[in-house]
Amino acid sequence: MGEQRLIVATLDGAGICVYKLKDILSGDVSPHTRAESDTHTQTTPYHHFTTDVPSSLLDVLPNPAGSSSSDSLTRYTALLSRDGFVIADIEQRRLATPVTGKFTCGE
Q1: Residue 22: in which H helix or E strand, if any?
Q2: CA distances for 12 relative to 1, 34, 53, 66, 98, angstroms
Q3: 65-94 in b/e burial notation, b at 16+ Cβ within 10 A?
């Protein structure tokens, strides 16, 4: 994904959505109907993760690998919660097996 920036949004315990920042800023939207009388548009997520996602995210940690587009490690992101973390392969749109543990997020 090179130098693309991502936004990770939780879905109230039903998983997470990953958006490309450039799509949101450029107004790349698709139709979405909330109710028959309330129609609006929203940006289409790059991907939804619905299983093996930590329940309450503390942080989303990008891989600090080099910024070279040829560096294959930049595609991985860690989703951190108090009860564990999972590595997300953003390009392949899949999650690794979750790692359990007690974690905190410090400054």
Answers
A1: helix 21-26
A2: 27, 17, 11, 33, 19
A3: eeeeeeeeebebbbbbbeebbbbbebeeee
pLDDT tens, position by position, 77-107? 888 888 888 999 988 889 999 888 877 666 6
In DSSP terms, 38 is beta-bridged to 35
- Nearest-angstrom CA–CA distance, 32 and 42: 6
Q: Is the pLDDT of residue 33 over 50?
A: no
Rounded CA separation 6/91 (Å): 12
Question: Is 103 strand, coil or helix?
Answer: coil
Closest by Cα among 4, 8, 2 to 60: 8
Give the chain's length: 107
